[in-house]
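Reminder to self: tokens first, then the designed residues, so the page reads top to bottom the way the pipeline ran.
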């Protein structure tokens, strides 16, 4: 699980996601300990990431090309995943102007977890990335403009990349000014990849 951050404003919505995917193979106990170190912020850079994995006997595959955000018909979508043994849970965020929804997908079963309306920041991530995001939002957000929200999200992505190896330095960021209806049917029938877009830095 890495980092997706969104803002649902009355006049616009924006979403950003890092591009890192980390695959681990090794003893269960060592992998669990390594994940705890990584997701709590103890492993800051890629050098330490490789070093700690080797010390624990874990084989790593790290790629920085996994796009986690997309846009479809005025709805911005972000997705993060986490695995627990053979079980993979996907958390998917839908954002449009003034509204958002979150669903969890486990073994093909979808559960609507949360919906919200009004101007809101929403953060999906691990322990350290969520902490970084919430600290930046609390310090910087003063009920400002949509441009301020975009600036804050860029700041979150940059800060997270400098503090933890669990996210990439590059990220994708998408915006929309369209107001779409996040009804249950739209959310549950969303097909990933139908209109993915990549960009950002």
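Designed residues (201 positions):
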């Amino acid at each position: 699980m890495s980092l997706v951050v969104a803002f649902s404003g009355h006049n616009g919505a924006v979403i950003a996601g890092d591009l890192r995917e980390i695959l681990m193979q090794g003893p269960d106990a060592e992998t669990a300990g390594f994940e705890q170190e990584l997701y709590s912020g103890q492993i800051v850079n890629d050098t330490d990431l490789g070093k700690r994995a080797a010390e624990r006997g874990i084989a790593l595959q790290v790629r920085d090309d996994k796009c986690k955000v997309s846009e479809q018909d005025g709805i911005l979508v972000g997705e993060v995943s986490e695995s627990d043994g053979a079980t993979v849970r996907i958390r998917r965020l839908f954002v449009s102007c003034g509204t958002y929804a979150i669903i969890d997908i486990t073994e093909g079963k979808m559960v609507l977890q949360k919906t919200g309306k009004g101007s809101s920041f929403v953060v999906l991530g691990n322990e350290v990335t969520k902490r970084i995001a919430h600290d930046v939002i609390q310090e910087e957000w003063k009920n400002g403009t949509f441009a301020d929200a975009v600036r804050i999200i860029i700041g979150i992505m940059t800060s997270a990349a400098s503090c933890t190896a669990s996210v990439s330095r590059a990220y994708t960021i998408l915006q929309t000014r369209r107001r779409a209806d996040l009804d249950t049917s739209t959310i549950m029938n969303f097909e990933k990849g139908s209109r993915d877009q990549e960009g950002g830095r």
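Confidence is low (pLDDT under 50) at residues 194-201.
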